[in-house]
Amino acid sequence: MNFDLEMVREFLDQIEDELELGLEVDDLFDFTENTDVEDERQRTFDVEFRGDDVSMTYVVFMDDIDAPDVAFFVSDEELADAINKQMEAFCQKHGL
Hints:
The chain is of the alpha+beta class. It has one domain (5-94). Helices cover 44% and strands 27% of the residues. It contains three helices and three strands, in the order ααβββα. The protein has helices at 5-19, 25-33, 77-94; strands at residues 40-49, 52-61, 69-74. It has a three-stranded antiparallel sheet, covered by helices on one side. Helix 1 (5-19) packs antiparallel against helix 2 and helix 1 packs across helix 3. It is globular. The mean pLDDT is 94.
C-alpha cells in the first residue's frame, strides 16, 4: 500500500491496537522514514498472533520522498487476512 509518510505511524498504530502483535511502531516508523528515495528495505521479525509466533517481513519502497510503499509478508494466512482488513478499514476511514 502507498501512504503519505505522515500516515504510516497512524496505520502501524492501528494494526497494533487492533491485532496486538507486539509491533515496535516507533522503530518501524523510523525505519520507514529513514529509507532513501528509490531504495527498498525490509526487516523480518516475529510477532505474536493468537498465541503463536509468526514471522513477519516489513518492506518499504520509498518511491517518493513523502509517499512510501509499505507491505507486510507473513507466514500465517489468517494474519495476512487480518492485516488486509486493517488496510481496507484505514482506507475507508481516510477516503483513500
